[in-house]
Amino acid sequence: MSTVYLLSDQPVLLRGFESVLGNKDFEIAGSCQPAAFATAIEPASRPDVLLLDITAGLTLADLSDLHACVPECPVVLWADALPLDLMFKTLEFGVRGIVQRHVQPEQLVDSIRKVVAGELQIGFGATSDAPQPRRRVTLTPREREIVAFLRQGMRNKQIAGEMGITEGTVKIYLFRLFHKIGVRNRFELARCGALDQLQLAPGPFMASERPASEKTGKAIRNEMPSLVQR
Fold first, then answer.
1. What domains does the chain contain, in order, with CATH numbers?
2. What average pLDDT score do residues 199-228 get?
3. Residue 94: pLDDT above 80?
4. pLDDT score recorded for residue 188
5. What was the pLDDT predicted at 81?
6. Which of 35, 53, 186, 228 could crosslink 8 through cysteines, CB 3.0-4.6 Å?
7. In b/e form, how buried is each residue of 73-90, taking b as 16+ CB within 10 angstroms?
8. Which of 49-53, 133-137, 139-143, 184-188 has the highest mean pLDDT?
9. Percent of the chain topping pLDDT 90
10. Mean of the per-residue pLDDT values for the chain?
11. Which DSSP string corresponds to the chain?
12. How many CB atoms lie within 10 A of CB 105?
């Protein structure tokens, strides 16, 4: 049974989460307001996933503080639709799922289960059934390296070891590539990754191309906008 910790400023919503998830073989590890999490969480315990309601207002700095408390714990956001650039930024602080508020309870349960299993559950719109990109796509050297490793059948952990980065950073690169090329998953990316179809961006790999998860904490916190309007 997976454990989930619930975070929201709305007591009624917390009760609703408990009702939905408690009936679906999840153990509720606890619940509180996001601001109280650091003092409420037991130091020796770590839930399998955090479900975080951000509809009342939350900044990336707040999300960073939560992530620092349980750095290995994936986060699922309960939210309205977020701009794509903010989706990318949330990935850098442990977010592995974004569930919109209008979904059915079964969809919320399914998304959390998949995040616990190691999947990304962040929708990015409809894509063509054809796995080939519709246009030539310019990849950075780092992105090209990821695609080459995928075509060799490597898993995320193996790619991370080869590139000297974390497995979470590999997932961020893959998520960006899915959007950039217009595919739905790693298998489609590998299939359309014949490198004669993907242009290599000119010039060397620059530090500015790195995801924020490869930057320093100070640099990250200087770039933190609000996730939602307060």
1. 2-122 (3.40.50.2300), 137-217 (1.10.10.10)
2. 44
3. yes
4. 73
5. 76
6. 53
7. bbbbbbbeebeeebbbbb
8. 49-53
9. 27
10. 77
11. -EEEEEE-S-HHHHHHHHHHHHTTTEEEEEEE-GGGHHHHS-TT---SEEEEE-TT--BHHHHHHHHHHSTTS-EEEEES---HHHHHHHHTTTEEEEEETTS-HHHHHHHHHHHHTT--EE------SS-S-SS-EEE-HHHHHHHHHHHTT--HHHHHHHHTS-HHHHHHHHHHHHHHHT-SSHHHHHHT--TTSEEEPSS---GGGS-GGGS-HHHHHTT--BSS--
12. 14
What average pLDDT does the segment 44-70 reach? 86
Residue 15, Cβ neighbours under 10 Å: how many?
A: 13
Q: What is the pLDDT of residue 127?
A: 39
Lowest mean pLDDT among 36-40, 63-67, 192-196, 208-212: 208-212
Phi/psi at 180 (nearest 5 deg)? -65, -40
Give the HSE-up count for residue 174: Cα atoms under 13 Å, Cβ half-sphere.
27
Question: pTM for the whole thing?
Answer: 0.64
Q: How far, rounded to the nearest angstrom, does the alpha carbon of residue 42 sit from its chain's CA centroid?
A: 24
Query: Six-digit token pair at 111?
Result: 């998304």
- Give the whole-angstrom CA distance, residue 217 versus residue 230: 24
What is the pLDDT at residue 82? 78
Structural tokens at position 187: 């298998």
Q: Which residues contact 5 (CB under 8 A, 6 or more apart)?
A: 28, 29, 30, 31, 37, 41, 47, 49, 50, 51
- Give me 64's structure tokens: 């960073």
Phi-psi sector, 125: left (phi>0), alpha (psi -120 to 50), beta? left
